[in-house]
Design goal:
The protein folds into two domains: about 70 residues, Orthogonal Bundle (Multidrug-efflux Transporter Regulator, Chain: A, Domain 2), CATH 1.10.1660; about 60 residues. Strands 1-3-2 form a three-stranded antiparallel beta sheet. Helices cover about 50% and strands about 10% of the residues. The longest helix is centred in the middle third of the chain and has 30 residues. It is mostly helical. The relative contact order is 0.11.
């Protein structure tokens, strides 16, 4: 059974207990813009599995590696951008592969088209540094 990893599942108290932090710490992280939980109509914070992983990543950076919150903010923003760029590259490779780029086109004189990106699918892997 698969679940939507972005679907809100947990209230702040549950997440705080799971990660062994005070709920006020989670509120502070939200105030600083480091996490963005969704809200119910009654404004209750709801955290998804992705949110919990992001907070756990944040805690590893601060507790284990000694990174301050300004550094954590930069690292998390860079990670999000890298994941976005990775998705764009995967989409581009799929587009090039699906469009038949590089194949001979008899209707155009038989010359192969040049691809924008030359990458074997085995060379691309998910980025997960933390």
């Amino acid at each position: 059974m698969t679940t939507d990893r972005g679907k809100p599942l947990y209230m702040i108290g549950v997440v705080a207990e799971m990660l062994k932090v005070h709920p006020q710490t989670l509120r502070f992280y939200e105030k600083k813009g480091l996490v963005r939980p969704s809200r119910t109509e009654g404004q209750t914070r709801m955290y998804s599995a992705e949110d919990v992983e992001e907070i756990a990543r944040l805690l590893r950076l601060t507790r284990d590696l000694g990174v301050n919150l300004a550094g954590v903010e930069i690292i998390l923003k860079m990670r999000r951008r890298m994941l976005d760029m990775q998705k764009q590259i995967e989409d581009l490779v799929a587009y090039v592969r699906d469009s038949g780029a590089g194949e001979a086109r008899p209707e155009r004189g038989g010359a192969p088209r040049e691809a924008l990106v030359r990458a074997a699918s085995g060379q691309l892997g998910p980025v997960d540094l933390f």
